[in-house]
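dumping this here so i dont lose it
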């Protein structure tokens, strides 16, 4: 029977053993492979952050804490050892610490076999090698990085003989490691530059580092430029043990510098030229304009500035698309460029706006001659794909130094003159004059007044009756907005709608017209004065608005207005824009019972296939085709074609701008019996409409 002293001594020995194991980061495991029991020393559990009693001494404890992928590897290796009757088993694997991180252990064990050769027991140790493993992985990764880096990393002894040579060095210098290791680093320098190498090594030893751009050579003798640096290698005692060299190839960089210089010139060109037309852009234009001012100050020869804007170019973009529009702009630029003199400067400011600086003017009349030439060349037919297009331009001209002596003012005045040309009918030119300053100021004041016009109830609606020429009965009214200006009197749309579009007020105006007209017409329906439709012009911006459908439904409900009483007129040029979304919105309106009419038909560039897909019920012949019939053969042919088109598409048709018996008779004879124009009535006030309706009842 064991004495208490003996037991106490054994406990102390066990304690010392465990302490020694903990100090050495080693623990014991004893696996009875027959009875499937496992002894785990407390030091093993402590290594993983557990107290002895927290983990049972079972096979499951190791399996629970071992990294899943490592269990497969360890057990596979153990089976191979047992099959080959090996006595010593060694492996590395990971165990999970109580706080969740993984530690690496080195397992060493003795496998014990019975007389029949079966493994019955395995006793061994687990040693924590996490720090060593992480350091090993770190060194391994660093070695891989150095080996795989594309730049050359070379170690030398203090005499310059090569000791290591990475893959980047092989690629850069074309030497294999077995060809170069042991040779002096100077072999990488051309014969006549070895003094550069010796100077670098000397500076390295003096300062501890050296870096410079220098010429080296490959195995083939091909030269290369590199950024070469030397640094001293030191041990833990700060004793110098060698040299490390880093070489970065800059040969391609030198070539790239030439390319970059060329690209810089290209970018400079792009920064000063329009990408579409290759003409000088706004930046270069102002530079040239300033040059012209300075040159004129020296030479005392005046110059003229032309501001050219294409007329109704937006219609081409909206109806045919921006691709066709871009080709029109390129063709326009080419035509103007071929018209002006070589010493003149043509620039594209933006969109369809061009400028010309005409130097050495001589006489203002010379500017008139050039303006007329430009207008004539712009009017020539333009053939793009299957389209024959006709464009025109409006030109404003300012003169230096008569009108202004600085670039900004010259451009502003030419722009003002251009707007005056547009007001005078387009396809013409105007010189800036002092009174045009008043015109420009007045235009700005108009913009401000227009913003206040709705709130001040200055807008009003006139209605133009639509008549069936066979029965002389009214079939509808078109609502037309007017502005009762406080100082200028009654203004028509052509005076302010352009301003409304510029300022974005067109949507508010269209909304006001819609609600006001629907309220009035609903009242006339209630009084049995009118049983027909209200025709409303809507802009593309209004139709595209996020809340347009809600606004229509709200107005219908607010004024008890039946959808069948309403017809929305959309300009042909606008309806060609945003086909998919446009068709979807028009289909919703049509499904509500609202009529859809294409206004100004014949002035845009309709796609017949698109026209067929649109949920429309009426075409409205533009008045520009009516005004010269029956005297103009071409207009008569166009009107007949539009009527035939409407008939083939089973669409209703109406003509606007009818003023004479001859026009009316021609239309009725050719199948267009619905008419709108001065022949029956000018646009009239709501009070006059009441009398008109009573009369025609």
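and the seq i came up w/
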């Amino acid at each position: 029977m064991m004495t208490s002293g003996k037991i106490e001594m054994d406990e102390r020995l066990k304690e010392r053993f465990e302490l020694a194991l903990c100090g050495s980061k080693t623990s014991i495991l004893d696996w009875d492979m027959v009875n499937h029991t496992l002894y785990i020393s407390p030091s093993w559990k402590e290594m993983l952050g557990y107290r002895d009693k927290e983990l049972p001494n079972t096979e499951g404890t190791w399996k629970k804490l071992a990294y899943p992928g490592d269990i497969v590897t360890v057990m596979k290796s153990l089976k191979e050892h047992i099959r080959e009757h090996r006595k010593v088993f060694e492996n590395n694997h990971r165990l999970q610490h109580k706080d969740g991180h993984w530690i690496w252990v080195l397992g060493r064990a003795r496998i014990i076999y019975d007389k029949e050769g079966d493994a019955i027991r395995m006793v061994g140790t687990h040693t924590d090698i996490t720090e060593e493993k992480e350091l090993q992985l770190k060194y391994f990764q660093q070695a891989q990085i150095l080996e795989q880096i594309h730049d050359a990393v070379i170690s030398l002894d203090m005499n310059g003989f090569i000791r290591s040579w990475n893959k980047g060095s092989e690629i850069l210098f074309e030497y294999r490691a077995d060809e170069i290791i042991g040779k002096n680093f100077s072999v990488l320098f051309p014969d006549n530059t070895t003094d550069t190498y010796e100077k670098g090594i000397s500076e390295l030893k003096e300062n501890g580092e050296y870096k410079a751009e220098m010429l080296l050579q490959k195995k083939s003798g091909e030269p290369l430029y590199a950024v070469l640096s030397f640094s001293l290698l030191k041990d833990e005692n700060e004793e110098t043990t060698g040299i490390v060299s880093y070489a970065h190839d800059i040969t391609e960089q030198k070539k790239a510098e030439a390319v970059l210089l060329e690209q810089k010139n290209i970018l400079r060109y792009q920064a000063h030229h329009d990408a579409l037309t290759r003409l000088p852009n706004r930046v270069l234009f102002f530079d040239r304009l300033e040059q012209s001012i300075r040159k004129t100050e020296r030479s005392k020869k005046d110059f003229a500035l032309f501001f050219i804007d294409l007329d109704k170019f937006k219609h081409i973009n909206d109806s045919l698309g921006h691709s066709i529009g871009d080709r029109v702009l390129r063709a326009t630029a080419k035509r103007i460029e071929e018209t002006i003199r070589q010493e003149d400067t043509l620039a594209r400011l933006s969109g369809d706006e061009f400028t010309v600086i005409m130097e050495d003017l001589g006489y203002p009349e010379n500017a008139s001659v050039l303006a007329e030439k430009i207008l004539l060349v712009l009017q020539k037919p333009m053939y793009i794909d299957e389209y024959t297009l006709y464009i025109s331009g409006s030109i404003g001209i300012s003169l230096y130094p008569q009108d202004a002596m600085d670039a900004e003012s010259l451009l502003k005045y030419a722009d003002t003159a251009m707007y005056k040309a547009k007001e005078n009918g387009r396809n013409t030119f105007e010189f800036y004059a002092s009174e045009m300053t008043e015109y420009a100021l007045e235009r700005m004041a108009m913009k401000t007044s227009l913003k206040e016009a709705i709130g001040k109830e200055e807008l009003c609606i006139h209605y133009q009756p639509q008549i069936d020429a066979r029965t002389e009965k009214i079939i509808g009214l078109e609502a037309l907005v007017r502005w009762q200006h406080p100082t200028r009197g009654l203004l028509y749309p052509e005076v302010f709608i352009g301003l409304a579009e510029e300022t974005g007020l067109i949507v508010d105006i269209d909304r006001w017209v819609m609600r006001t007209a629907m309220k009035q017409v609903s009242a006339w329906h209630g009084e049995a004065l009118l049983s027909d439709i209200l025709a409303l012009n809507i802009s593309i911006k209004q139709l595209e608005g996020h809340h347009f459908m809600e606004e229509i439904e709200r107005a219908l409900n607010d004024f008890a207005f039946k959808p069948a009483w309403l017809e929305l007129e959309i300009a042909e040029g606008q309806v060609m824009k945003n086909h998919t979304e446009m068709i979807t919105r028009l289909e919703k309106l049509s499904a509500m019972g609202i009529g859809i009419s294409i206004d100004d038909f014949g002035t845009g560039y309709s796609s017949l296939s698109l026209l067929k897909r649109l949920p429309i019920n009426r075409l409205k012949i533009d008045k520009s085709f009516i005004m010269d019939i029956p005297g103009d053969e071409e207009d008569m042919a166009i009107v007949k074609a539009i009527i035939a088109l409407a008939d083939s598409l089973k669409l209703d048709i109406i003509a606007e701008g009818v003023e004479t018996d001859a026009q009316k008779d021609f239309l009725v004879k050719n199948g267009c019996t619905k008419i709108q124009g001065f022949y029956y009535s000018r646009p009239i006030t709501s009070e006059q409409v009441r009398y008109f309706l009573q009369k025609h009842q």
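The chain has four domains: 14-135, 149-254, 273-433, 450-696.
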